[in-house]
Design brief:
about 300 residues; Rossmann fold; 8-stranded mixed β-sheet; 8 strands; binds adenosine-5'-triphosphate; binds magnesium ion
Length: about 300
């Protein structure tokens, strides 16, 4: 039966037009997807990495694929400014208005053939503090099964549409679980950061994700063990993962840090701290930068 939910057709139509306009060349910039079980620290780590990349002069696009839309607040956009955030799925009319394109006429003509991050941010995203650009997918109109949801299709089209130049990086924060690896949205990412805490269920999600990411052809997969309180926590995770450990290019251990809870959801105050947590995170940022697009 055809799906007649209002808006669905429009979202899919725009996604298809964007896709038709996409011509993929060789990219010099790179894409990193951040995944893991609920609550392991995905959004916190994505927001901090986005700021660290921006501080090093990268043009950084932090993408929020989570319908909960927590990333803008983590990246430092104040709650009272939240009306500035127009999720991708809500701004179809807004974009037409802003660009003076006649409804129904213009999507094809307003898209450039070889867009960079700033083209896409101007049309679909927002500029956050510290030079971090943010693109928010927005809420899903109605829970639809997995990969067929039009909101995801639209986000995927927009992300693919960008042709990353040297010095440009996309960091994508994802909803909890492994679903994105079943969709093509994760394809074309150069690196995956799989985050777990030292609990059995979170490690199982990472184990499954690591195999899915490999099958999907993501060349470089890193493991982050977050909320570490002792050597035992690290050993426990490594033991549960067993042979899956071979799939990781690098491993990082981030300590439990009360300061994160004090300032959450905003991570910006942490950027000036010389805590062990931030030291390790800076090492993670450098590693992602060094791997870049390398297989
Ligand atoms: N190393 C840490 N030490 C202490 N608290 C932490 C640490 N890492 C993350 N947290 C806290 O854990 C909570 C959950 O983090 P976050 O929202 O980043 O997780 P998430 O994986 O994005 O969750 P969700 O799946 O709900 O999107 C936040 O309050 C955050 O401040
Ligand atoms: Mg999150």
């Amino acid at each position: 039966m055809p799906d007649t939910r209002p808006g669905r057709e429009k979202i899919l139509g725009v996604a298809q037009k964007i896709r038709r306009n996409t011509r993929k060349g060789n990219e010099s910039g790179f894409r990193v997807i951040i995944t893991g079980k609920g609550g392991v620290g995905k959004t916190t780590i994505t927001a901090l990495l986005a700021h660290l990349f921006a501080q090093k002069g990268f043009t950084t696009l932090a993408v929020d694929e989570d319908p909960q839309m927590n990333l803008p607040f983590a990246a430092g956009i104040p709650r009272e400014e939240s009306d500035r955030i127009i999720p991708l799925t809500k701004n179809l009319d807004y974009v037409q208005e802003k660009t003076g394109v006649r409804p129904g006429a213009g999507w094809g003509s307003m898209l450039t053939l070889n867009p960079d991050v700033s083209d896409v941010v101007e049309r679909f995203g927002i500029k956050g503090p510290g030079g971090v650009n943010i693109l928010v997918m927005g809420t899903i109109m109605q829970a639809a099964t997995g990969c067929l949801c039009p909101e995801n299709t639209l986000l995927e089209s927009v992300i693919r549409y960008i042709n990353l130049r040297e010095g440009e990086v996309i960091l994508m924060d994802t909803p909890a679980g492994v679903e994105h690896f079943g969709r093509s949205i994760a394809q074309g990412f150069n690196q995956a950061v799989l985050i777990t805490d030292p609990t059995f269920n979170a490690v199982q999600v990472v184990r499954q994700s690591a195999h899915l990411a490999k099958e999907l052809g993501i060349p470089t997969i890193h493991l982050v063990i977050n909320r570490v309180r002792s050597e035992n926590d690290i050993r426990k995770v490594q033991e549960i993962l067993g042979d899956t450990m071979d799939l990781f290019s690098e491993q990082f251990y981030l300590p439990y840090d009360e300061d994160l809870i004090v300032c959450e959801p905003d991570v910006v105050p942490l950027l000036n701290s010389a805590s062990p947590f931030m030291e390790r995170l800076i090492t993670l940022q450098k590693t992602l930068e060094n791997y870049g697009t390398k297989p």
